Amino acid sequence: MSTKKNTELEEFEPNIIGFLCNWCSYAGADLAGTSRIQYPPNVKIIKVMCSGRVNPMYIINAFQQGADGVLVSGCHPGDCHYTSGNYLARRRIATMKKLLEFLGIEPDRVRMTWVSAAEGRKYADVVRELTDDIKKLGPMTKFRREKEW
Amino acid sequence: MKIGVYVCECGTNIASTVDVEDLVEQAKEFPNVEVSRVYKYVCSDPGQVLIKQDIEEKQLDRIVVAACSPRMHEPTFRAVLEDMGLNPYVLEIVNIREQVSWVHNDKAKGTVKAASLLKGAVLRASLMHPLERKKVGVTPNALVIGGGIAGIQASLDLADMGFDTTLVEKTATIGGKMSQLDKTFPTLDCSQCILSPKMVDVNRHPNIDLLALSEVVEVDGYVGNFKVKIKKNPTYVLADKCTLCDDCVPVCPVIEHDEYNQGLSPRRAIYIPYPQAVPASYLIDPNSCLGIDPLICSKCKDVCGPEAIDFDMKPEIIEKEVGAIIVATGYEPYPIENIGEYGYGTIPDVISGMDFERIVSASGPTDGTIRRPSDGKVPKTVVFVHCAGSRDPSKHLPYCSKVCCMYATKHALQYKHLVHDGTAINFFIDVRTAGKDYEEFYQRAAEEDQVIYIRGKVSEVFQDGDRILVKGADTLTGETVELHADLVVLATGLMPSAGTKEIASLLNLSVGMNGFIREAHPKLKPVDTAIAGVFVAGTATGPKDIPETVSNASGAASRAAGILSQDELEIEGTVAQVDEDLCRGCGLCAEACPYSAIEIKAINKYGHALRVAFVNEAMCKGCGSCAAACLNGAINQLGYTDSQILALIGALGEE
Q: Are residues B251 and B342 in the same domain?
C-alpha cells in the first residue's frame, strides 16, 4: 500500500559528505572496497589526516554548498593515530550539533562515528544507516548558498 | 596552471562499474585541465611514461590520477612527478576503485560519484602548492621491546649489523614462552637447548644493552629520532656480585608458586626464574619477600657471601635515544579458566597445553615423568582436546591459532614415548598441518606411535571417581563417544599478551579485531606498522610458530636497519604553518596540539611586540588539529589547507 509520499521519499537520493581520517576510517572504507562489500553511493569522502582536522565550519559549509548530511569518522576512542585528535573532533561535533538544533536544523544530519581500519563492514553499515536516516529527513534546504552570489 | 588528468581502468576493476570514457570527457571541461586521458593500468611502466611525456610536452604542473586508493600508489606517482622535476605534493589521487567501483554495482550512479570526486580533485589541485620535505638526522640505535625468541632474534640481527640495540624485557629473564616449552615440533628438538645459546649471545654481545625486569613507559619523537623512557625495576640482587651459589634459597621462609612451572611447583621469594636465565642472577619477589619494607627477615642477606643482596634498591628511569623500534611483545595462551565447560578449576586433572609442557619437561616439576596434578599417578589414558577455546566466535577466540594442532600432536607423541602402554586420544575438528614436515609429523604420530585421532568436539568433561568422564561426538561416524581418561589436556590458542596491548596503546599502534597489532599491509608489509620507524615481530601480530617468528623477527630487523643505516630521513611536508599577520597569539592551537609542537613566541613586527604561534616542524606530525581550532584561520595544514578542503566540499556538494 504505497502512497505517493512514500514514492517521493524513495526517489530522494541524499548527498552526503564524509570526512574520514586517513589512518582508521579511510582505511576502513578501503577495506570495505577490497572486501567488495556493497553500499549506497551517497557518501562522498574527503580524506583528512585526522578527524581533529575537521573544522566545524566545514559542516556549515557543506550544508551551504548542497550537502544533505555530513559524516565525520575517526579512530575509536583511545586509538587515535595522533593520540587525541578524535576527542577534539568529538567535542567539536557535539557542540556543532547543539548549535544546529538551535538554528532549527535536524542535528541528525551530522553523524560522528568511529570506524577502525579493520572495520570495512562497519563502514558499509554506517553509510547504509546514515543514507536511510537522511532520506527520512528529506533534502536539506536551509541556508543553501546561491551559486550566483 | 596546467592540470593533467589520468583515469585508470585497472583492467576491468574500475572500467566494469565506472564509465571511464565519460569521466575523461567530463574532466576536459573542468578548469585548468590541459589533458585528460584514460589508460588500462596507469601505475604500470607505460602508464607512468604516459604521464612523464605529458609533463614534458604539455608543461603540466599539477597531476590528478583517478585510480585505486592513495594508500596503494601515492608513492608510485609521487616518484613519477619527482622524476620529472615536479614537486611530489602537486599530485592528487582520486580513489575510484576501493571507494567507488568495488562497492557500487550501479554503473550510472558510480560514474556520477566518481565524476564528482574527480571534479573536487581538479579544483583542489589548482590550489595546491609545492611543499618542502624537511630532512632530519637519524640516531643509529634500535630499541627492541620484548625478549622472547622474536625480540632475541631481532636484537641479535641488528647488533650483528653494528647497531647499538637496547632490548627491554618485562620479566626477569629473556627467553619468553619458548623457554617454557619442552620440545619443538616437528623435529622434537629440545626447545631450551636451541634457545639458550641465543640468550647467552644476547648477554655477551657488545652492541646489545639488555634491560630485564624493565618496562618502556614513555615514547616520544618520530622516525629516526625517538626518545624513550624505560623503567628498570629493582631485582634487589646485584647481578655483577651474584655467583649463583644458591645459598640464599634454602634459608628463605617464603613459599610461592613458580610461574616458570605454571604454578605446579614451589619457589622461594628469592629465586632464579630457571637455571639458564639471562641475565643470570637471582632476584627477590618484592610482593612476598619479608625483607623489603618493612625489614622483618634478612636471612638471605645474612648468608650471602659476596654481599649481593641490596634491600634498598629502587626503580630507576633510563632514557635512550633510538632511530627505530621493534615491538616483539608476543602472546599469552588463552586462559583455560574461561573454558568452564571443560571443567578447569573444578577438576584438578584438566590442564592446559602449557601445563603439560612443564609436566613433560625434564626440568619441570615432575622431573620429566608424566604425572597428573591430583594424585601424582602416571596417567594411562590422556585426552588431548584440540581447538579448546578456539574457532568459537560465540564464546571464545574466533580464530585458528595455527600451532595448537601441532603441539597437541607433539604432546600425544611425547606421552606415547614416555608411557609406552598408555593411550593418547586426540579430539580434533580439523588437523591443520600447514608447515614444512608438519603433515609427516602428524602421520608419524597417528601411524607409527598409535596416537588415536577422533574427529569431533568434546562437549562435556566430568569428574567420575578418580577418573575423568569425557563426552563428545565422533562426527565421522555420527556416534556419541564416552570414555574415561586420567588426564585431559586442553590445546588452547594464542591471544595477544597484556604487554602487546599496553605497548600498542603506548605507541598508538592500531590493533585488529582480535587485539593483535595490525601490520601496515597484511601481505606486503608484514613487519611494518602504520607508524614510521616502528616495526613489529613475532606473535604480536598474530599466532605464529617458531620458524615463522624467527624469520619475521629477522625481517623486522632488516626493515629497521633500512632506516638506521641512513644519514638523514625526509619527513612529510604536510605540516602546520602560521600566518603571523592573522595570528593573535591566543594559544588555542598549542592547546589542541597532541605533540606540543606549537609554542607561543613573542616577535617584533611593525614596531610592536606581538605574540604569535610558532610550529616546530620536526615535531609536527601533520594531523591538522590546530588548524581546526584556530578562530582566525591563522594556522593552516599544508597539503590540507582550508581553501583546498572548501573547494572539495563545493565540488562534492553540487548535485
A: no
- Burial annotation A115-142 (CB, 10 A radius, 16+ → b, else e): bbbbbbebbbbbbbebbebbbeeeebee
Please tell me the distance in Å from A3's CA to the nearest CA on chain B: 26
Q: Can you give the residue range of the structural domain that contains B259?
A: 234-313
Residue B223, classed as helix, strand or coil, is coil
Number of structural domains, chain B? 5
Measure in Å the smallest separation between the Cα of B320 and chain A Cα atoms: 22
Residue B201: inside a domain, yes or no?
A: yes
| A58 closest CB neighbour out of B97, B505, B649 | B649
The reply to whether B650 falls in a domain is: no
What are chain A's domains?
3-137 (3.40.50)
Query: Using one digit for the tens of pLDDT, what is the confidence trace for B438-478?
Result: 999 999 999 999 999 999 989 999 999 999 999 999 999 99
Residue of A nearest to B97 (CA): A33
Strands (E), chain A: 16-21, 43-48, 69-74, 110-114
Q: Which residues pair with B547 in a beta bridge?
A: none
What parts of chain B have a pLDDT lower than 50? none
ipTM score for this prediction: 0.92
Tens-place pLDDT, residues B264-292: 999 999 999 999 999 998 999 999 999 88
Q: Is the Cβ pair B594, A82 closer than 8 Å? A: yes
This prediction has a pTM of 0.78
**Looking at CA atoms only, how far is residue B95 from chain A in angstroms?**
9
Looking at this protein, which amino acid is placed at residue B366? T
B376 part of contact set with chain A, CB < 8 Å: no
